[in-house]
User: Which sequence fits this backbone?
DNA sequence: TCTTCTTACGCTCGGCGTAAGTATC
DNA sequence: GATACTTACGCCGAGCGTAAGAAGA
């Protein structure tokens, strides 16, 4: 189970071609073939069907393992080299789209910051592999409960802020005038699943015993104004941190009452941040 | 970052000796030396001090990564081979000590079961590496919230039961007569930390903002009667699922009121369990 | 001086590329 | 027959063991 073989395997599976993978990895097609053969012999099971090139059941399982495995490997290398490496000028901050509140923006140093917005699930990976010094992730959680982040590496996390979440209604919706709504009443409403912009629906579905909260529309963009426009147009409801939805035209934000969930932002970093990173972490703390 | 090198590194670090590690791994001392040298050159930083053999700062970081990495590697191999392997006779169940309630015991098939009690954190690993077909873990969680398990591999989890938790008081304790207690009132009480028998204190400390719940005594055994005896002798309080503490002499179990936490048991397995394992999962579901 | 890690050196085996073989479309 | 994976084979380098060297207790 050499990582090289694993890397080759995922490339072949992704590209559905030995020769394409060879091109991408800088090997000959023959070498790729031998890699796969070695893996299959090692594990004692065929991993790919040839012609067409498709993972077998065993290959599917291996694929599920391979990505986090290779990620951890990169994370380990980054973590070790980080200690020896000279601290670069500048500071890169990886953040999920709705994690950047006013508080964070105010705490940023005046110059030398790169802000990299990535999908929620990729923030820990970015920090672990050293792509960013600091990460900011947001998500839904019970009050003062930590977020459930994928553990790609031993990272330190750190609550930055919590604020109530609200449901985004179009103006004129029968519930739009309420002071608060209960989530249970909305399980069967039309919802917009906007995993990169709003708060993720699967979390609500899980909290509701796996039922309800089926998306009527999926929005894969990252623009909050687009999302509010979709809600205003009646395509469905969305869940947002209250502050993110205020002031938009054609929509109303109604705070969520019943299940006590909050929008929580966490700061994540590896080891002991130094220099500008350390100051920012301190300012956020 | 060959896994072999990593394995050698952890062995050397654990044994604090190149030659001991060589013996254990079936290499010559020279090969071990070369392994470490290769790792250090690859990562560009010294990982161990020699004489005495101790991990450097970089080595410490690598050690933190190495164990989960090697575990995941084993898990991947087990997961893939599991598909091809012939289903063995018998069924091995890995369980944490307080996960085995009456419901589970009743659901066990009449013969061919091996029950392996391991530490809470090792249950997912046992299932992932194929040491056990099914795992049963328990822990504290908010009602209907899943447990926070280390993700060694893509495993399926599955709530089995939830029951209230209670604080174990010695008879005559001023609070022992109450109908319910609030955890916040007990932050500064004397506690017994019995991570393998009772419910883990760190969870409570985290819920309390990192304060309080400092253990007065640590019990590393696995015997519930021993724990109740320690409580009865006034060494401290302990947190248990209510049913586990009932009927013991010299102690009273008072249900926990305020923070809504329950004792939750989850069933964990890999892939789609077949045969006896499938039946048991069904019976627990 | 003894123990323990490092370095030197030779051997073997693993792994890659070239090229020929084979199977599927 | 063209395309795409497999197998054969030779070469180079990686990695192990033996053995000598160096450094600390």
Assistant:
């Amino acid at each position: 189970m050499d990582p090289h073989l694993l890397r080759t395997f995922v490339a072949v599976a992704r590209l559905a071609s030995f020769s394409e993978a060879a091109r991408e990895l800088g090997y000959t097609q023959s070498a790729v073939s031998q890699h796969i053969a070695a893996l299959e012999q090692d594990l004692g099971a065929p991993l790919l069907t040839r012609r067409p090139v498709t993972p077998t059941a065993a290959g599917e399982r291996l694929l599920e393992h391979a990505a986090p495995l290779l990620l951890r490997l990169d994370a380990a290398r980054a973590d070790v080299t980080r200690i020896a490496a000279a601290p670069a000028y500048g500071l890169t901050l990886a953040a999920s789209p709705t994690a950047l509140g006013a508080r964070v923006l105010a705490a940023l140093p005046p110059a030398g910051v790169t802000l990299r917005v990535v999908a929620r699930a990729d923030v820990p990976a970015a920090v672990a592999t050293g792509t960013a010094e600091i990460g900011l992730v947001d998500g839904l959680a019970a009050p003062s409960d930590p977020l459930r982040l994928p553990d790609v590496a031993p990272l330190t996390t750190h609550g930055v802020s919590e604020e109530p979440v609200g449901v985004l209604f179009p103006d004129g919706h029968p519930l739009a005038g309420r002071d608060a709504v209960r989530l249970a009443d909305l399980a069967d409403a039309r919802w917009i699943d906007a995993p990169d912009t709003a708060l993720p629906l699967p979390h609500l579905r899980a909290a509701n015993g796996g039922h309800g909260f089926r998306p009527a529309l999926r929005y894969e963009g990252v623009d909050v104004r687009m999302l509010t426009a979709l809600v205003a147009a009646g395509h469905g409801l969305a869940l947002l941190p209250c502050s993110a939805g205020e002031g938009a035209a054609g929509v109303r934000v109604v705070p969520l009452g019943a299940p006590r969930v909050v929008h929580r932002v966490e700061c994540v970093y590896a080891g002991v941040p130094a220099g500008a990173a350390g100051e920012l972490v301190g300012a956020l703390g």
About this structure: The radius of gyration of chain B is 22 Å. Chain B has ten helices and eleven strands. Chain B touches chain A at residues 1-3, 43-45, 47, 57-58, 61-62, 64-66, 68-69, 72-73, 75-77, 79-84, 142, 144-146, 148, 150-151, 153-154, 206-207, 209, 271 (CB under 8 Å).
